[in-house]
Write a structure and sequence with these properties.
- It is a single chain.
- The chain is elongated and about 50 Å long.
- α1 packs across α4.
- By secondary structure, the chain is mostly helical.
- It is built from four helices and no strands.
């Protein structure tokens, strides 16, 4: 009998995931580089499972709007 490994995400893992995600939406390969101890399947599963809970789409939208405002104010 084969047991699945429990996916444990530390607070640091979650923070790294969110920071990398906000740099560019769905750059899951870059997130994987920042979390080398996580498989790509774990990262994709985490994204799809928690995107509504963490309101990730709204966070991505907010970060884009913030960056646009900063760029426009510097010009």
């Amino acid at each position: 009998m084969e047991f699945k490994r429990k996916q444990v995400w530390s607070v640091v893992d979650i923070k790294t995931f969110i920071v990398e995600l906000l740099k560019g939406p769905k750059r899951l390969e870059k997130i994987g580089e920042s979390l080398p101890h996580k498989t790509s399947a774990e990262i994709v599963f985490f994204y799809h499972t928690l995107k509504k809970l963490l309101k990730l789409k709204q966070e991505i939208k907010n970060s884009r709007e913030y960056l646009k405002m900063r760029i426009n104010s510097q010009q």
